[in-house]
Design brief:
The structure is a single chain. This protein has no helices and 11 strands. It is mostly beta strands. The strands form 2 sheets. Strands 2, 4, 5, 6, 9, 10 and 11 form a 7-stranded mixed β-sheet that branches. The chain has a 4-stranded antiparallel β-sheet with strand order 1-3-8-7, with no helix packed on it.
Length: about 110
């Protein structure tokens, strides 16, 4: 059994930054990618960023150049550094590993 717990969300002004964390407990193997998704009100959940075993990353076009995903395998933790935030980044952000999901953390970008 795996548990994922996100933290770091909050209210930030446009142009600001936030760093999300996802702490994983249980049987985590670094061979699988870890992912960040988000879901805005009335919209489908979308993949934001992926980090693979070797450290390679992929990003949604909408966040490229602004968001950075990283992982600490020793701590079973994945991070999402979000810079230059825009109102359209407002969403609940979820950590995902294989078929496990966290409870989500709210990010609101507003002046």
């Amino acid at each position: 059994q795996v548990q994922l717990v996100e933290s770091g969300g909050g209210l930030v002004q446009p142009g600001g930054s936030l760093r999300l964390s996802c702490a994983a407990s249980g049987s985590i193997f670094s061979i699988y990618p870890m992912n960040w998704y988000r879901q805005a009100p009335g919209k489908q959940r979308e993949l934001v960023a992926v980090i693979f075993k070797g450290g390679n990353t992929n990003y949604a076009d909408s966040v490229k150049g602004r968001f950075t995903i990283s992982r600490d395998n020793a701590k079973n933790t994945v991070y999402l550094q979000m810079n230059s935030l825009k109102p359209e980044d407002t969403a609940v952000y979820y950590c995902n590993y294989v078929h496990y999901w966290g409870q989500g953390t709210q990010v609101t970008v507003s002046s």
